[in-house]
Structure formats: structure tokens, C-alpha cells
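Training component of the fellowship. As part of building independent skills, the fellow (R.M.) carried out the full modelling exercise for a liganded target. The chosen ligand was S-adenosylmethionine. The inputs are recorded below so that the supervisory panel can assess the work.
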Amino acid sequence: MENLQVTEWVQHFIRQQVREGDLCIDATMGNGNDTLLLARLAGKSGHVLAFDIQEQALKNTEDRLAREGLEKSCTLFMESHEYMSRYAREGSVSCIVFNLGYLPGGSHGIATKAGTTVRAIKEGLKLLKKKGLLTLCIYSGGDSGFEEKETVLSFLKKLNPREFLVIQAEYINRPSHPPIPVLIIKI
Ligand code: SAM
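Fellow's submitted model of the complex:
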């Protein structure tokens, strides 16, 4: 078994979920790791919509996709993820990925925030198709603080269990504030 860091943990399930031809969303594009994975999995007949509020993230992701010849498989938006439902129909998306926090290598001051993150998750849950998957990597402590983690988890705990299966995993022997991987499956 590989050393499963939080992003690899969720990517394991993303790989099980996404099929050739699927529509996917990367809600926090950053340096494009998840956008690239989704684009590879969805293939030429699929499509990825990716969001970030920082120009640097778009630039880094564009370069990344161009190196792999996958730029036509993705549409990149410099726009907050809370507006994702402008660009996809309800019930049409196979997989939505949130990797919260700040841009690795960028300013720690520009990061996801509790209010917009919860609004974006609500929109994402509408867009997911049945048996669709929404993944989250949640960070806390340090520059991330605790507000976003607490707000997001308390929102997720109240989701209707007839509509959504919500699974939170835990790194139980890691000190301080280990990241939290979450899967939400639309029933
Ligand atoms: N998945 C990325 C990757 O593969 O490199 C890493 C994402 S990084 C941890 C979080 C990103 O969320 C940052 O690039 C940040 O600019 C972005 N972000 C912050 N607020 C946002 C918002 N409201 N809408 C979309 N992206 C946002």
C-alpha cells in the first residue's frame, strides 16, 4: 500500500468513480493536480470545469494541461466555486473535488472560507447525478484556523441521510491537526 496522504486517499475513490465521457468539476483548481486527474479519467469525450479565484492558479493549471495535451478537455474559470451551477445542469456531474485551503506556493492569506465553501458544496450537491461523488480535503490549525473545518463538518452532519451518504475518515495517530478526507455520495 502506498503512503496515502489526504489527497491520495480521496483520489483513490475519484479513480473508482470517474468514467470516460463524464462531466466533472474541480472546485479548487490550485496547481491543477486534481483537474489533470479528472481530465485524464474523463478522457477526450468527457469534460472538466475547474474554478479558482487566483490568476496564478489558472496559469499553473493551463501550463499543466497543455504539457499533457488535455487543455481542450477542461474549461477553467477565474470565479468563485459558489457560482458553479451557472455552468452545469442539475444532476449532470459525476464527480466534484474540493481541496480546501491556500494555493501551495502562493499566499497563505488567500484561502477558501467557511461561508463560500458551504455555499459551493450546496450547489455542488445539486449538480451531482445519482451515485455521483463529491470529495473534500479539509485542513485546520495553522494558517487555516478552525472555522472552516467546523462550519463545513457541522453542515455535512445535517445532510439528509436518505439523499446523501457522508463518510469522514481520520488519521488517528497523527499529532496536531491532521487533514480530514470526506466523501459524499448522492443516493
Ligand atoms: N487541488 C489543487 C491542486 O491540485 O493543486 C490545490 C487546491 S489549493 C489547496 C486551494 C485553492 O482554492 C487555492 O488555489 C485557492 O486560491 C482556491 N480558492 C480559494 N477560495 C476559492 C473560491 N471561493 N473559489 C474557488 N477557489 C478558491
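The panel noted the following from the submitted structure. The mean pLDDT is 96. The two ends are 29 Å apart (CA to CA).
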